[in-house]
Amino acid sequence: MIDLHIHTTCSDGQFSPAQTIQMAAQAEITVASITDHDTTSGIAEAQEAACQCGIELIPGIEISVQGGRELHILGYGISPKHPALQLFCRENAENRIRRRERMLEYLLQQGAEITLDDVRFCNDGRTTGRPHFARTLVAKGYADSVQDAFDRYLTTPEFYKYVERPKPSPEKGLRVIQEAGGVAVLAHPYQLQLESDAMAVLLEKLIAYGLQGIEAYYSRHTPAQTEAYLRLARRYHLFVTCGSDFHGPAIKPDITLGTGINGNLGIRDTSIPERLKQAIAAANKCI
Ligand code: AMP
Ligand code: FE
Ligand code: FE
Ligand code: ZN
């Protein structure tokens, strides 16, 4: 099985990179990518575990950019320590730290009194994402579930107006992936909630900045959405990828490694990673 979209404790996932790779091996995953949000810090540990488990690991990252709405771009085949990518990750980490302070103030205004020490129960301190706050709100009794915490506090207009962090432009995000030797793929396109014409306009813009692939196979896509993204991939000569977006049951309880939701993923088509690897090789070929 193939799963090219997985999170660990290096961003907002529940399990360490080594644990996650061991779980992937148990799930009979043969090709995996760890795609933590705005960081490559888990790749070395994941790579070591992958060698021991006989899993092929493609280095990955998922970056958030702001292009009218929030877009997530997956970068595959990146050199984790590339200086431009490291600088990009550091800037995003600093913006997350600044957001943390605004978040605590905002939650207090909403009547939810939590501290950074409270958040640490589910966070190793490397980055703090909204899911860490969501889990803390549940643990402290301010929400019934992670989803409830997102609905009540973390996706409100006030959150986006007063708390949310600034994000880089799509152009900048795609450029840094390419500079670091990677290829860029649009993550979970369904989340953009765009009609097909608007999606085509967006894809054309992203392709002009270097987008090469689209995550047509994704846990939360309906069969009709998958078909629509496969059609767009053909139309724009994009390659397709598949990913569960596994974060662990404490964060996304319905999503299982490799198999997605109720077994709707379970991709075994090895031409998907082969095509991706060809694109990575081409991106790194000296001309
Ligand atoms: P951040 O990058 O810290 O703003 O957090 C964004 C992350 O929160 C996403 O990548 C998801 O992992 C998670 N997330 C976003 N919306 C929801 C939601 N409605 N329910 C659960 N998790 C969510
Ligand atoms: Fe996440
Ligand atoms: Fe995402
Ligand atoms: Zn993700």
Question: What can you see in these coordinates?
Answer:
Helix 1 packs parallel to helix 2. Helix 1 (17-26) links the parallel strand 1 (2-6) and strand 2 (31-34). The protein has helices at 17-26, 43-53, 83-109, 116-119, 130-139, 146-154, 157-163, 170-179, 196-208, 223-236, 271-284; strands at residues 2-6, 31-34, 56-57, 60-67, 69-76, 183-186, 211-218, 239-243. A 5-stranded mixed β-sheet has the order 4-5-6-7-8, sandwiched between helices. With 287 residues, it is an alpha/beta fold. It has 11 helices and 8 strands. The model has no long low-confidence stretch (mean pLDDT 96). Bound molecules: adenosine monophosphate, fe (iii) ion (2 copies) and zinc ion. One fe (iii) ion binds at residues 7, 12, 37, 247.
